[in-house]
Amino acid sequence: MKRTFLYESHVSLSALMAPFGGFEMPIQYEGILAEHFYTRKSASVFDTCHMGEFSIKGPDAAADLDRIVSCDISTLEIGQCKYGFICNENGGVIDDQITYRLSRDGFFMVVNAGTQDADFEWVKKNISPTTSFVNLSAETGKIDLQGPDSPQIITRLLKVPVAGLKYYQWMENSYHDNKVLISRTGYTGEIGFEIYLDKKRTIEFWNECLELGAKPAGLGARDTLRIEMGYPLYGHELNAARNAAESGFAKAISTAKRFIGSDVVHDGGNRRDLLCGIKLDGRRTARNGDTVNNLDGDAIGTVTSGSFSPSLSCAVALGYVAKQFSGIGQKVLISSGKNSLPGVITAVPFYKTATARRPMREFFTS
Amino acid sequence: MPTPSDRKYAKTHEWVKIDGTTAVVGISDHAQSSLGDITFIELPAVGKKVTKGQSCSVIESVKAASDIYAPVSGEISEVNSELTQKPETINKEPYGAAWLFKIKGYNDSDISDLMDSAAYDAFAESEK
Lengths: 366, 128
Prior knowledge:
The complex is a heterodimer.
Chain A: H1 7-12, E1 16-20, E2 23-28, H2 32-41, E3 44-47, E4 52-57, H3 61-68, E5 81-87, E6 93-101, E7 106-111, H4 116-126, E8 132-135, E9 140-146, H5 150-157, E10 170-175, E11 178-183, E12 192-198, H6 202-211, E13 215-216, H7 219-229, H8 262-266, E14 273-280, E15 291-293, E16 299-309, E17 314-322, E18 331-336, E19 339-346
Helix pairs in contact in A: 2-7
Chain B: E1 8-9, E2 14-19, E3 22-27, H1 29-35, E4 38-42, E5 49-50, E6 55-61, E7 65-69, E8 74-79, H2 82-85, H3 89-92, E9 101-104, H4 108-112, H5 117-127
Antiparallel strand pairs in B: 1-2, 2-3, 3-9, 4-6, 5-8, 6-7, 8-9
């Protein structure tokens, strides 16, 4: 089991630890609900050092990446980053990722922890021999600072003001004279940042965030926050057998180019199911693998993630539902063990007032 | 939170307190702490016959679902239905306001099979 650069910090904070993606990771510190609400109202730090980072460089790097990922890379401007899928030849998802354009010929790709080795082999196999491709994961620390207080906190830690950074933009910055990369992205729905820095500076940065009022949040809150937003988690909503187009994330899939798997992904005839949000009537949680039925009792889909939603005070789920039954407002019954849980297909995000896309100036006034 | 000495404890982490002719049942502080934030409880129906050691209620936390076992045999005489809307009370007051249900017609021998607070503390520590 691998450990992140922040392992000792989690132990000293008495975090409950558990394996995730091959790493021993913090699940919770104070408690999942408290961490969830603190992220929505104030600011939390998440240890995301377990994730994988790759460098891709060379005159053919953009064309290579355009073949490997589902989103448009050639049109990506320096200073922007983009979310998309790495697909196999059948249009299934090998991983979801974000690519940053660092320069005309230089890119930075961030992938999931549990898939990073397989991702590295896949990209290496499909990249031009002239393109430099390096795994930076062992040297790169990563911390997510998320929540309405994060613009003020980050401003006190970094040399260059971040106020001009728009959603899905990144900038180079300086933390105690060390180069860091910061993007206005995240997995919680709240305004915030993902910060990439030298592994030697990770603990210091984490501690300074805590001193400035951020609290640590674990993978438990990370999951409830992302489910409330309808964000997918690899291995649940996304996997190698599921056509990427069925996820419904149209913006992550370019129709203007061909990429590995695009023949299948672009063909609407292959889209049988659609990823849906399901709001349950009660508090009891549906589980990954539960069957979704219509009110006639016909099986129409499968749950991929289920959780209690702290913000909505009811259970919510994500799942794939046959297209003809996937309309918003469709009533369903989820078979969960011996229980039948009533719910309704609901547009995501479940939580409507998250701050990620709000103008950053709103968060500097108080 | 100290383990109250005015009641008995099962190995499945329920407590039982005798109140007149009924046995009041809840879960221990150790149990609520292990479960984490509790978000749902399914209580048994009043009048249901329960058997010692058998599941009669379900608690869910953000992390997991867990069965609650009847610590003694008998009949459910009352349930704490306020917990259905406020299951977080179980985290806050496991030995007080968050009693789960009451059992009538229990056997004294079932009670004497349970642990006292000192024995339960040692048992809970051994499970960590």
